[in-house]
Specification:
Elements: H1 4-21, H2 35-60, H3 65-91, H4 100-117, H5 119-143, H6 149-171, H7 179-198
The structure holds fe (ii) ion (2 copies).
Residues 51, 74, 78, 130, 162, 165 line the site of one fe (ii) ion.
GO molecular function, one term: monooxygenase activity
Pathway: Cofactor biosynthesis; ubiquinone biosynthesis
Protein name: 2-polyprenyl-3-methyl-6-methoxy-1,4-benzoquinone monooxygenase
Length: 199
């Protein structure tokens, strides 16, 4: 028999999925179109969609309340990042990636599978993802036009928070993933980056 808690967490996961995939960022005011900034911020929006998928997937099979609470808090931060990046893209009159559902479900599967392998593996995936995201965000900060102050501010705040997520995952018992797995994750990250920059 399916436990009630199972149904509850399924409803919660579907609800959050709808919130991410149906997300329409606010557009406070329009600014001049800046192709370069739009591309970079579209990639970052896609990355945040993937972050939602990863944390939701890991949290879905997590029973430990301490870890559950970590995933829930990270999801709140990541949703804020998602909203900032999306609003930024739209305010520069850009569009979001068509592939967002693919990033979401891909990352959800990775999060879920890593948690099935064990709680410290799920945390290991989170810690490694956040480490790679940090490198990526610092690179984007170098590449963003100096005059795009708003996008730069967004990335700087994200850098601080992603770092905190990674540290917290390590503190909670993340295992160091084998180098081959880290390389595979980096390759997937490059696919997300180059596809969502264009599509
Ligand atoms: Fe984030
Ligand atoms: Fe994060």
């Amino acid at each position: 028999m399916i436990k009630l808690e199972g149904i509850d967490s399924l409803i919660d996961a579907v609800d959050k999925m709808i919130k991410v995939l149906g997300h329409s960022p606010r557009t406070p005011h329009y600014e001049a179109y800046n192709e370069h900034s739009v591309r970079l911020m579209r990639v970052n929006y896609a990355g945040e969609v993937a972050a939602q998928g990863l944390y939701l997937g890991a949290g879905f099979f997590e029973a430990d309340p301490r870890l559950q609470s970590f995933y829930q808090h990270a999801l709140i931060d990541e949703f804020r990042h998602l909203d900032w990046c999306g609003s930024r893209v739209l305010s520069m009159q850009g569009r979001l990636s068509y592939c967002n559902p693919i990033w979401f479900f891909g990352a959800f599967s990775i999060g879920a599978m890593s948690r099935i392998a064990g709680p410290s593996y799920a945390l290991g995936f989170v810690a490694e993802t956040e480490r790679q995201v940090l490198d990526h965000l610092k690179d984007h900060l170098d590449r963003l036009p100096q005059e795009d102050v708003r996008s730069r501010q967004i990335l700087m705040t994200m850098i601080e928070e992603e770092e905190a997520h990674g540290e917290e995952a390590k503190r909670l018992g993340a295992v160091q993933l084998p180098p081959k797995v880290c390389q595979m994750m980096a390759a997937m990250g490059r696919v997300l980056t180059s596809v969502s920059e264009r599509l």
